[in-house]
Amino acid sequence: MESTFALSPSIPFLKSRNPNLNLRFNYLNLSSNPSFNLNSVNGVSSYSSSSLQFSSWCYFPCIVNDRRRMEKFNVKATLASHDTNEEEVERPSTTSTLIKTLELGVLIGLWYILTIMFNIYNKQVLTVYPFPLTISTLHFGMGTVIVLLMWTFNLHKKPKISRSQLLAIIPLAIAHTLGNLFTNMSLGKVSVSFTHTIKAMEPFFSVVLSAMFLGEIPTFWVVSSLLPVVGGVALASFTEVSFNWIGFSTAMASNLTNQSRNVLSKKFMIKKEGEYLDNVTLLSIITIMSFILMAPVSLLIEGFRFTPAGLLSSGLDVKDIYVKTFVAGLFYHAYQQVAYIILERVSPVTHSVSNCVKRIAIIVASVLFFQSPVSLINSFGTGVAIAGVFLYSRLKQVKSKPKID
């Protein structure tokens, strides 16, 4: 026996009086037989009208769908509350990121200022006191004093260096010493702006030395980015008013030694009981070793010319030279410390780009301060070289994508 179930077309769906709960009522229109029997089908028990009594119209509130809607509403409300909590949790993270970005900006700005001030004071000293060996020794001596004070007052943890580590650091110290010496020799002969224009060729030496000693073959685009660097430096050199071969060759030599130091730092793994030495500690050790290397050489070649008697015999203001040398040495070590701190916080490419901008700042500041004569062609060549360095910094990180089989 079949029972007919149909929705009544004459009575619309009713809404609940409670506006917060929207319920729908479905109505069952029974067949003409008022008895409601569900017979057994395939062994299923049957029910007769004696157990269930219905009128011809029976109202069944169908709240299943509405409960589901309410559940969905509750889920959405719960998710919304979770989103709010997540936003509240993320706010400190966003604030922390902003603080770190501001700190990085301050460090980069401080790096630029310290480097500019070092070059200005150092150039003033080398112009009237052209003894780069002595000046370089004094720079390393000032750095050594700062490092010892840092270790004494626990501003930075004093490291324990093994003999094998010292032997690995010695080549780095030699390269670091020569790089500073050649830079000072160049600054004593040519303008600050021209020295740093020549030093813009550091990427060229980096690529060549890395290919020779590390087996790092550069990509086509990296090699292409070096063309404007070399061309721009050549154009600036041909039109430089203060050009001389000693200043040019020593600036080139500083590029070679500085990039040799960087390659050696990759070649030799400086470890401490299985851990790498941090950059600040490594710089501190190299500074002390550079002072030990330079002191006897400068005394042997240039003698005790930096004494008050020696400066007075040359007609120099002792106090002025001493103050400027002291400040230059202080700025020299400070800007290198800040540079290494920044390197620990950013990627190498970001550091390279920041260093590129720093070189522009040095060139512009030195031209304005010393009123160096610069021709239009010279400025164009410098700009092309710096642009090439920037392009190199970006393309250096581009690697060929692996093929997908």
TrEMBL record:
Membrane topology classification: Multi-pass membrane protein
Source species taxonomy: Eukaryota, Viridiplantae, Streptophyta, Embryophyta, Tracheophyta
Biological process per Gene Ontology, one example term: monocarboxylic acid transport
GO molecular function: carboxylic acid transmembrane transporter activity; organophosphate ester transmembrane transporter activity
Main location class: plastid
GO cellular component: chloroplast membrane
The name this protein goes by in its record: Sugar phosphate transporter domain-containing protein
Keywords tagged on the record: Chloroplast, Membrane, Plastid, Transit peptide, Transmembrane, Transmembrane helix, Transport
UniProt organism field: Aquilegia coerulea
Bilayer-spanning residue ranges: 101-121, 133-153, 165-183, 276-301, 321-343
Record localization: Plastid, Chloroplast membrane
Keyword Transport: yes
Domain Sugar phosphate transporter: 103-393
